[in-house]
Known about the structure:
31% of the residues lie in helices and 16% in strands. It has helices at residues 7-12, 48-59, 61-64, 79-89, 103-107, 123-135, 143-152, 193-207, 209-212, 255-258; strands at 15-18, 24-26, 36-44, 69-76, 96-98, 166-167, 175-176, 224-228, 234-239. β1 and β2 (24-26) form a beta hairpin. α7 crosses α8. The relative contact order is 0.20.
Amino acid sequence: MAAEMNPYHILKQTQQQRVSDGNLGLILEGCDPACHLLVLVLPQLGDFDSLEYAWWLQRYAAQLQTLTLTIRAVGIGDRASGQQFCAYTGFPPDALFVDPAATLHQQLGLYQGLSLKLPGLSPSQNAWLNLMLMCAGVGSPGTLAEVWRGYKGDRNAPQLIADHEIVKATPLPAFKGSIFNLAGGKGFQRPFELATLRLRNMVEVLAHWQTYVPNSAYLTQRGGTFLFDRNGDLLYEHRDQGILGFATNMSDPLAFLLAEPGFKRVQS
């Protein structure tokens, strides 16, 4: 089965539309052979996981630039979805490809999510039903605990919002990040801090729903993360098993990458 193969061989042969220029091309074309390769296979580009994953990459952008690392991402959507995603998250459009029918996800054997089919409902309606059930934890292990962590805080996670940052998350009024200090201090993820970032993402997606989700049939499809060395050997993989489960360590989703001993540091 395809899922039993080294994912690199599947990825190396995969062509999708590149967001930057709209051209169809191999997703690994142009990758520096001297670099490690990180491939993110994202769910819908309007999914909580996709937006949050991109936020972490942006947060650690300076550190990632010191690594001999090439990043590629493929998300479910069309070029308009990708353009909106990049404009909001800052993810580079030349490194993002779009897969309108989750073809790559299926080839890699990634979790399709809950797939109940009620008679009389369209594929889109069934997808919505399954998504709501997954948000409630059905067929989506760890989701409720992760939602709760966003509200209660996490002393094992870093502080997410700087004291001087102005937070805008409709319907909340704009406020300075220092207000989270009132919930228990600083230097770690405070109560409501992550929930506020997720609220901001939700508002963004709802405001541009048709752009982010041109086809709701794939709402439940989950993604995966794959890190390869210079030879294409798999160093790390994570296959999402539920909503808000895009990393092995959700307290620090890029810990697996920043701690990788095989990286050479770029000389400044």
